[in-house]
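[Automated response] Your request has been received and processed.

Submitted sequence:
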Amino acid sequence: MGWKVLKIRLSEEAPAELLSELSFELSSLGAWEEGREVSLFFVPSVDLPSRARWAVSFLEERGLGVLEVETSEEEARDWIREVREGFCPVEVGPFLVVPPWHDGPFEGGLLPIRIKPGCAFGTGLHGSTQAALKLLPRAFEAVRPRRALEVGV
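Generated structure:
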């Protein structure tokens, strides 16, 4: 299932909160705002031309200029797969921070640390994660415990 998209570009006079109100009034499933432009997403069964006409009337009644209205259809996308493709392994000291779905191979003798993005520090890019991982080998030089537990706060 794809999506129908109504894209509206507003004049500078239009208040930003109006875009949210418009999305609500049109019962869109979601909205993407970028500057003075809003893209509203609808199920394929929606009569998009009538929604577009209603949106223009709604804005004109408020004395606001509509610079452009565009309708289109988007194919369904595998958003989970696309988001996952955006997470690459991150090398930090002797470690390689990887998401759980990354199977390797892990080259160069790096020790993989699996962290689910969105949990804890997620991607390994956060400064405190990198600092802790860089200090970890030094902490284990004097003492080599069989097990270790990291407790985040």
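Summary generated for your ticket: The longest strand covers residues 66-74. The mean pLDDT is 83.
If you did not submit this request, please reply to this message.
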